[in-house]
Amino acid sequence: MSAIPAALDITAIIRQLPGHYILLTPDNTILDASNSYLAITLKKREEVIGRNILEAYAAINENEWQVLADSFEQVRLHRQPFTMPRIRYDLQRTPEQGSGYEERYWQATNTPILGADGQLLYILRQTQDVTAEHFAELTRQAMQRELEESQLRATFILESLPVMVWTAQPDGRADYFNQRWLQFTGRTLEQEFGQGWQVNIHPEDLEKVSQVWQHADASKEKFQVEYRLRSADGQYRWMLAQGVPRLNAEGHITMWIGSTVDMHEQKQLVAELLLANEEQSALSDLAYQAHQLAQSHRETLYSLFMQAPALIAMVRGAEFVFEFVNPLYQELFPERELVGHPVAEVLPETVEQGFVALLDHVYQTGEPFHGKEMKLQVHRRDTGRVEECYLNFTYQVFREHGQIAGISCFAFDVTELVLARQKLEMLLNTSSAQ
After folding, report:
1. What's the farthest any 2 CA atoms get from each other in the chain?
2. Residue 149 falls inside a structural domain
3. Would you call 315 exposed, middle or buried from its count of C-beta atoms within 10 A (0-12, 13-18, 19+)?
4. In this predicted model, what pLDDT tens digit does every residue of 390-426 receive, in sequence order?
5. pTM of the model
6. Interstrand relation of 321-325 and 369-379 (parallel, antiparallel or unpaired)
7. Is residue 196 located within the same domain as residue 283?
8. Of 20, 118, 246, 291, which has the fewest Cβ atoms less than 10 A away?
9. CA-CA distance, 48 to 173, in Å (whole number)?
């Protein structure tokens, strides 16, 4: 008879507890529950009292309800409080919230209440709503996975880039080199840490690299520098290094990140191009001087040709186009424009008199022709008269690139000499006849 009043006393207390509590007998029968427990489960007291908890609160997940049953068994066996793993138990929404169930997660502790003889009288189950903590943990785990994935992705990118990548602390001490750098230098990551990597810089370039770094550190600006770095085979190769500082909100450097590219072949190519340009410039100077000398010679020859007491002309090609005539030659044909025109076109009478045939023979054979006191009949277009003159001349080919390009003509007007000799001959003949 004494157990019943004790149960009544404890259930009265349970109802007023400011948390989610439910009182069970050792066989999992519900004796009573706190008002807040019934409120969140939307159950009436008469619906659950006297029922097995595993029946009164229908299972949503069979595995989780097995965990619940096992937890009660742990309390019965060991007479010790047992905190269950977090389980999911969805609550039915209130009419104001709408139909269906709301996803909720709970953390429960089953505590044994023992009698004076150590026997198990009751199991007090305290349940805490840890839905917010659960979703916060899921969010944290997702963020952690995303962070780890981001770190793995960043590492993968740094290790896969076709350039040597490095990072350094704010004071410039190196703390990371990717595999391409280590493969190039043939050194371990530990050997390169801090200032260790500088042992491979060419001694002649070390001071320059240091000065560039100091300026970048002071100005908090990115830098670029070329230097020679010793490779694993002991050879020095030209590198192009670039570094960029990462600044925080206060403008302080938090780290440096940089890349180094092997530019040895490009550097050699530039050096070769510069040398070739210098040689080309020297050759150009020589060529210019030779051109100036040749131009001077041409001007001298041109002056001589223009002032020479001879008839001089040059014709080019198989059509014998006049390319040059001096003033004396032009005087034979004062009313005609010769330069730029074929001989047969501007001097048709020379065709009839066989002079063009002579030009063609010389052009085809390359053999010079020497004419002596050859008569040329010139048609004066202004008067319509035909005038005769006598010439001593030479036709001779000139060559370009080993090929016959044209014919030069050097002639002397011997008309007066021929006419004087003819008159003398006539007088002698007349005197002899008398």
Report:
1. 202
2. no
3. buried
4. 999 999 998 988 899 999 998 888 888 788 778 877 7
5. 0.41
6. unpaired
7. no
8. 118
9. 69
